[in-house]
Amino acid sequence: MSELLQFTFSGLTVGAVYALVALGFTIIYNASGVVNFAQGEFVMLGGMITVFAHAAGAPLPAAAALAVVATAAIGILLNKLAIERARGASVVTLIIITIGASIFLRGAAQLGFDKQLHRFPSFSGDDPIAIAGATILPQSLWMLFGAAVVFAALYLFFTRSLTGKAVLATANNKLAAQLVGIDTDFVMALSFGLSAAIGALAGVLATPITLTSYDAGTALALKGFAAAMLGGMGNPFGALVGGLLVGLIEATTAGYLSSDYKDAAAFVVILAVLFAMPQGLFGKSAQERV
Amino acid sequence: MRPLFAKPISAKQATLLVLLLLIAVAPAFFPSNFYYRVGTLIFINGLAVTGLVVLIGYAGQISLGHAGFAGLGAYACALGPVHLGLPPALSLVLGAVLSGLLAWLVGRPILRLKGHYLAIATLGFGVLVSMVLANEAWLTGGPDGMAVADLGLRGLLKSAGIKVGNAELWYWLAGLILLAGAWLALNLKDSPSGRALRSLHDSEVAARTVGVDVARYKLSAFVISAVYASVSGSLLALTNRFVTPDIANFLHSIELVTMTVLGGAGTVIGAATGALLLTALPQVLTALQEYEHIVFGLIMMLVMIFLPDGLLPSLHRLLRRRVS
Amino acid sequence: MTLLSVEGLGIDFGGVTAVDGVGFTAEPGRIVSVIGPNGAGKTTLFNMISGVYLPHRGRVRLDGEDVTGLAPNRLAERGLSRTFQNLQVFLRMSVLDNVMAGRHLAERGSTLADLLGLPSTRRRSRETERAARALLERVGLERAAEREASALSYGALKRLEIARALAARPRLLLLDEPAAGCNPVETEEIDALIAAIAAEGVAVLLVEHDMKLVMKISHHVVVLDHGEKIAEGAPEAVARDPKVVEAYLGAHAGREGSHALG
Description:
heterotrimer, A: ABC transporter involved in vitamin B12 uptake, BtuC, two-stranded antiparallel ribbon, B: ABC transporter involved in vitamin B12 uptake, BtuC, transmembrane transporter activity (chain A), Branched-chain amino acid ABC transporter permease (chain A), transmembrane (chain A), amino-acid transport (chain A), transport (chain A)
């Protein structure tokens, strides 16, 4: 029993990272219809910038804040310089552009930083907390807490603020949104900035546990994409559930079956779900209009 | 009859002729043996990409997992001779049959999905294959890879009195196979099946109403492209005499799709151009050392932003505009 | 002899009834028009008959056989063909290829043979090309054969869709607003074309807004309003039906209303 609880703890911790990556996918997808494969690089950048700013003498909170802001700026630039210019391109073309961006960012990180594995100190030390026979790291609690805060804040943003409603309106019907005077270019920029910031935050929270390096982004992007599709692309709640599910599946597979196949298990489940529900768990099914 | 022979040369003949000329003439300009090797790699990638032209260009379906089939073909050539005592050439055929069969099995449910859902499902499939290859070390040698038997063609030619260098032999063999692959794909394009594939690309509902069994045709495109990828993987394993699970990984899938789209996904010649550029480019970019990835990513982005239909179609349009 | 019979057909979208309890029949060589104000459910009805939507209620019979819910390609095999209100042309293909694709049922064969370019494949392609060029001539597009479909005008695309639908050699042809967006000359031509198709023994089902065209060529008119059939009969009789007049004038007292009055 305590074993299962232990796997649940570790599953929820990585699941929270995936959920934040999936949320980043979801926000950009809703605003622009683009699946941004560079989402994983935002997480990597969040971790790496914090590492190097901290090493250069900045206090950890300042380094983390710098990482989030800088990554958000990179996200906005990506939108401005690449995505906006490729408007109306096909799904495959857009996927290739974002993959190009991800290779570019990885190369830049390798050049600007280095090829080593890095971490920085946990926020509240590394003494495990015992709960019902299992243990959890304080940093895991930070991770879960951070994810919860992000989801709650976004929920409020989208339901309470005018800007948030403008984003939702753009996601729903871009032309109609433009007609009622919403600046959809701004909404796009905002979505990329927001997604990048959320990714960077995930990197800041996770790096003390998972470590980071210049090439950490690809795997995260795959998992986050998978989580978003599992939940149903475009649905933030689906991103949360999908992320946590992927994390839990991985942790239990690694614990009970084989850690070699922990990545496989998540994809097996996703394939099974998609075969039964082609729109993911919480995706809307659309009737083709002719 | 007049319309059929109105044109002096068909697009199919032109494409084959251009490919043949390029393959035949290029060696005259090779400064060293190394270029035969690069040419071989271009042809082998070109073969997989030609298969993806059928899937992406004709039928309009995405796959981010075709490296999985390349991996299957590669490991068939590695394992067949060791475990089944099959000659490498027969192992290649066996790999192709297995890949086609597997594509037929997984394609049925996968191809019901559309857009990004199809992308993640094929991606998942590719990840699973590469994971099995990496993890079942007792069979595959794991991440370190395994040696692959010699195809034996060179020895055969030698005993017939023909002496040819290994690099050169592979160049001509891969070039020939690419030509054959291109010929098949071009046959398909203007055949009844090709029309069915291209029609469902543009409008599934209209394709259905003219009687196209959309699921069946998507599946056949998926199987065809899987066989191409498998043969390409086999050739790569045989020419390298070594194989690692990397051949099946996500980045290789992406590379293949990028080659397909970069040159222009609709046509065989466009895809061959994509294979040429993206195979040769890293060879050139290694000179840039640590800047390699940055430049590579940048080129991918720039081409797709400014030439979203791919190089050849965009150039074609540009030229037409100049002329008129 | 009844070719198509529709009985009590209905469908709901998100709890809202779009079409309900619609029934009528169609015979070879006759033109049946389905008219009604915008949003009356005409296209939805077509989509159910042609298998694009799965009806929630009712039956569709071809030759007396129940074909409700069969996939569009299965219905095509039974001789049903159609055009679309919002064009569904194969835009990346040439005009000729569009019509050739329409002959899929006659030309399809083994994909392996097609890959290998066997003589049988080439023969099928040649026959298809001949038939397709003849059809292009019939709709007046023979000179555009080699052009990309996306380069055609709206009216030409409408005719291209008709040619593609005819390529399947249908026994039952569903035309969804074939004259929409066409100028009077083009409308006249389409008018004559539809009459000629019917004269060859094809059962034609027509959705059309141009009342003059409907009244002129229809043998039978079915009137829908709010998803239900409110009248049917000969064109003249329907035009005088007070319920029909009210549906049109009540819904939107515009040009359509006065046209419906004849």
